[in-house]
Amino acid sequence: MSTTKAYAAPAANIPLEPFSLERRAPGAHDVQIEILFCGVCHSDLHQIRDEWGGSIFPMVPGHEIVGRVTAVGDHVKNFKVGDLAGVGCMVDSCRTCPSCQEGLEQYCEVTGMIGTYNAREIGTGQPTYGGYSQQIVVDEKYTLKVSDKLDLARVAPLLCAGITTYSPLRQWKVGPGHRVAVMGLGGLGHMAVKFAAALGAEVTVLSTSANKEADAKALGAHKFVVTKDAEQLKSVGNYFDFIINTVSAQLDLATYVNLLRRDGTMILLGVPSEAPHIHAFNLISGRRRIAGSLIGGIAETQEMLDFCAEHNIMSDIELIKIQDINEAYERMLKGDVKYRFVIDTASLN
Q1: What is the pTM of this model?
Q2: What is the signed CA dihedral for 326, 209, 308, 136, rounded to 10 degrees?
Q3: 65, 128, 172, 319: most buried by Cβ count inside 10 Å?
Q4: Alpha carbon distance 321, 197 (integer Å)
Q5: Is 80 exceeded by the pLDDT of residue 59?
Q6: Which of 277, 292, 307 marks a domain boundary?
Q7: Phi, psi (5° rounding) for residue 333?
Q8: At 309, is the secondary structure helix, strand, or coil?
Q9: What residues form DSSP beta bridges with 21?
Q10: Is residue 28 within 8 Å of residue 69, measured between CB atoms?
């Protein structure tokens, strides 16, 4: 066991504060990682506020983790001390169900995926604590290799925002000849633009804010549509093969589904507080589909990290100290970040 400095939410709707926790000693298959950077995800805020229910307190958030290996268990094969490593949204699963066997651990059918934080370990039942901390110990099967070619701080958000947008693009085999719209130019949306463009698709950003056009095109978008402008919206009716919907706010889905071509698909990544509604006719009139996607499995996440190293793709970030996390949450709610906060965990010292 080792004592680790962290920041935690003591209860729902109470600001994060300094916290000390005990990390287990590395077991035979474990990797111990000194955390260097941790991204700040909107789901961190949902969970510390218990907006999805079932939150476990005190809670140490953080599932966009990158750092350096400081110890490995006797049976670890793929990591050695000094390697760069990452940890994403999960640290375990049942490993035996069909989804786990197919490398889709995020859809584990027995225990469900064990979250990097706000979950309970299989066997011990102890709460998991995330990356707003100095170190973490994770089974090597759920640990990822990180390239030294990229800026490590900008790699951190790839472990959630990156894989969340990469996975559906790969699942639906998006590539040259496809027209892809991205709804919402935030932490997820800006990564969806980068990936879709790198895969060869024509990319359009759909936004309520006209002042985001320059940023969208700098990220790789080919077109920009202000959704409050009826004429601009009409110009892309029945136009897109895919819409990547990253928006977590309530909106009229029908307006956007009608932008899909026949057999087009809207992929939901955001989670609004209330269930969205849409009339069946909007779907059946064009044989359109609404689908969902949840992060990615371990193998696909490694594929995504390798793709990013090959294509020099990283998240656009603002680096902060852990002491500024509560202010960062408030700014995140206002959309006042381009496009992801990342904690420099050296500030815990």
Answers
A1: 0.96
A2: 10
A3: 65
A4: 32
A5: yes
A6: 292
A7: -60, -30
A8: helix
A9: 4
A10: no
